Fold each of these.
Amino acid sequence: MEPDLFTAAAEERQEKDPSSSPLAVRMRPRTLDEVVGQQHLLKPGSPLRRLVGEGDRAGGGQSPAGPSSVILWGPPGTGKTTLAYVVSKATNKRFVELSAITAGVKEVRAVIDGARRATGGFGKETVLFLDEIHRFSKAQQDSLLPAVENRWVTLIAATTENPYFSVISPLLSRSLLLTLEPLTDDDVRGLLKRALADERGLKGAVALPEDTEEHLLRIAGGDARRALTALEAAAGSALDKGETEVTLQTLEETVDRAAVKYDRDGDQHYDVASALIKSIRGSDVDAALHYLARMIEAGEDPRFIARRLMISASEDIGLADPNALPIAVAAAQAVAMIGFPEAALTLSHATIALALAPKSNAATTAIGAAMEDVRKGHAGTVPPHLRDGHYKGAAKLGHAQGYVYPHDLPEGIAPQQYAPDALKDREYYTPTRHGAEARYADAVEWTRKHLGRGRS
């Protein structure tokens, strides 16, 4: 199957009849200067600036050739595809988009072969944008290495998952890793104002009152495409009615969503969500239900609420109540299937369970401490007796030699070193004795003692 491709013909059609394209497409940034948000990546002399050949504009000097592979890591809706497209436009390169969900090695090789032929024939070079790269297997990611090493394509890969765990080391080491941040309301607001006035957009045909703008920002939830799609639909409805501004009522009717009834004293979308989680953390079930009700009545996306509850279950409850996370996950799955209004019952169920559960942040602090050590370089090599010994030649290297199989011992625990030398005495998990975590505290004390690491 032919990869998704912004062809020259498609671009020509858009230029001849821009009104035929959705507003989000018409307002696609043409340069890095038009990109909203991600200002930490767009400073003069930044890697992205060098990638498009701008060099260090602050210093006025020449920059070395930019990287041929970039990995963009960030949540959905933060502009990963947009950045890749802008790079292709700024460098006058062909833009080819593949999704790891539907593409395989065959499609990747077809793009690479086409890029080599185009380059060899003095045609346009190619930017290959690979979305959801974390869904590619190791072998599929390996197929990208020759193209990256030989600069046959400029690879820009996008992922919503930590690339240190989802991207193979050879590709990661050859790539520039850029972390994208969620768009702020101010970022989306600026984009809306541009779309209202720009010749590519609505050309000043309608105005957007403050209350309508605020509701539109809440609907968008930091997603630029969602904001522009809703604006286009509401503006079209207003113009059909002969109106010159998009009223709150028109927006509500268009997107079929009630206006968020938050007051203007800072008590908005994220503040109420924060209050919900902090009330759960503080075990105030009534306050938690109050904030939940406000979010429901405001027309908040039930999936957003469910995601916050899942985070709370691990962050603030953990093993003090091992059932908290399964309840939150089940609630999220139910919400996705049934939606409002019935989802309100499910969210109430989960909120009450979490608010009344015993609390512990021991799991949160444990992984935080472990990750901090890794960031500081406190890693070291895996002890030889723990290494993989299943392949030919492993024994000659001493791998897996001396490993004691815990199930062969009466108590099921083998007193041998598991952590690297530099961390052999490091303790990350400090359980509380709240709720069910008391038994985990006993288990930790017993196992560390039998491993020869018990505290005196």
Note: Residues 1-14, 55-65, 262-267 have pLDDT under 50 and may be disordered.
Amino acid sequence: MKKFKVAVVGATGAVGLEMVKMLENRNFPIESIKLLASERSVGKKLKFKGQDIPVELLTKNCGKDMDIALYSAGAAVSKDFAPSFAADNCFVIDNSSAWRMDKDIPLVVPEVNPHDLSKDKKIIANPNCSTIQMVVALKPLHDAAKVKRVIVSTYQAVSGAGQKGINELSAQTDAWAKGEKIPQASKFQYQIAFNVIPQIDVFTENGYTKEEMKMTNETKKIMGDQNIEVSAACVRVPVFRSHSESLWIETEKPLSVEQTKALLSKAEGVQLIDDIANLKYPMPLFAENEQITFVGRIRKDISTKNNNAITFWVVSDNLLKGAALNAVQIAETLVKRGLV
């Protein structure tokens, strides 16, 4: 089997660390791995297949002789460095928002639109974490009945804001448990421990946040349907890992609860957990470190006479399927399709 030279950019960040783990856990065919980061991380060592791999400084020449680079270092870094990697014939799979809405850059979730990948498009965008798990669940329903409208409320873990978000919740919770003064918020707008914050990213002119507009715009692009209407409310909750979403969807053709369950139970990348008699449904507590999107609480909407509306609950590990896993799966798809 052919093996590949792979780089991980931003290797010491929360998502970068998971990318390294996913490459190992999924046994991606690697000839060599290069771990890249900023100056402050140079010299650190990360384990990969039992070896200590030193972190090197990211430069624009690092893409030479590499086949694939997984980027998780922020939009500014990606804009600055990814084109140089691509010019050196290295595929860049970028986890930032830098390229997602560029019409010439594929925005890919392998279960949904692998056909958007090509040999010529060297930069590939990894979608927003909350969008990924939603479209994985929407895809089989869209194929069967055509989704027209989506109203989604998200309950997003602090790890979506990186290691600083994790540290802030941990420090605030620890202080509360010890009866000490809770440290002032710095990463989030307000205290996140024992609180929910109805704001993720900055507000736009229409009153929605950038995170909410990402879900609207990215869904249309990934699903290849500009007519799908999406309205999102994105909320930060005091959970360390795994995002949850409550979805209301309207389809062109009616879907019964039984049909919806049947479609989702066979869908790639989905696990149906829907047994309310035994109180079994998806929760972030059990989704952590799982490489799947969980769906449950499927029911017909009773607030309207529209027979084409259905609602359900979706949970997935935002650092895995929402970021690192999806990026590695894109790399696997490039290999499977003979594009790299």
Note: The chain has two domains: 4-127+323-336, 131-322.
